[in-house]
Amino acid sequence: MPEEDVRMLAYRLQPLCCEAGCLFIVNDYPEIAMECGADGVHVGQDDGALKEVRKMIGEGMLVGRSTHSPEQALAAHAEGADYIGFGPLFPTGTKPGRPAIGLDDVCRVGEALGDYPVFCIGGINGGSLDRVLEHGARRVVIVSWLLLHEDPAGAARDVIQKLEGR
To answer: If we measure between CA atoms, which residue out of 143, 128, 132 comes closest to residue 166?
Structure first.
């Protein structure tokens, strides 16, 4: 998505998230996150050093990092990320060309990082969620399956119920 489109959407979504009482995180664009008053920014492995992102946005905003291996997860934690995305666990259309990492390392990363926020992401759906949780995940990001579901609100409630039941 072009940067100007991200900026336009950020300015439209930030007040809606604020009104709903939920965090608003901008993906990949620290400058836009600062401009629109987002709660934080999420950056990938190729988006620069976390120290530089933190210097740019200050201490008042969250910084998240995408990670694709236990080594990257531990490094992001050590570098000061407030949370990490860990995946993609399964093949996903939102990250074409990015190989799925599977479930084997979910437990290992969770044990190594304790209560630190690790969000498992990538190709998770209603059919795979139980397996992801059985491997030790406590937080998940589900995008495509919810957006394409015939009853997104009901599906989201089911996911929340499973997460809260853990």
So the answer is: 132
Distance CA 20, CA 17 (A): 5
Question: What does DSSP assign to residue 97?
Answer: T
Distance from C-alpha of 119 to C-alpha of 129, rounded to nearest angstrom: 13
Question: Could you give the CA distance from residue 11 to residue 13 in angstroms, rounded to a whole number?
Answer: 6
Residue 166 has pLDDT above 80, yes or no: no
Rounded to 5°, the CA angle 126-130-136 comes to 135
Residue whose tokens read 């979504």? 13
Domains of the chain: 3-86 (3.20.20.70)
Q: Tell me the pLDDT tens digit for each residue of 130-158.
A: 999 999 999 999 999 999 999 999 999 99
49 pLDDT higher than 80: yes
DSSP 28-78: S-HHHHHHHT-SEEEE-TTS--HHHHHHHH-TTSEEEEEESSHHHHHHHHH
Nearest partner of 86 among 48, 137, 47, judged by Cα: 137
Residue 94 pLDDT: 81
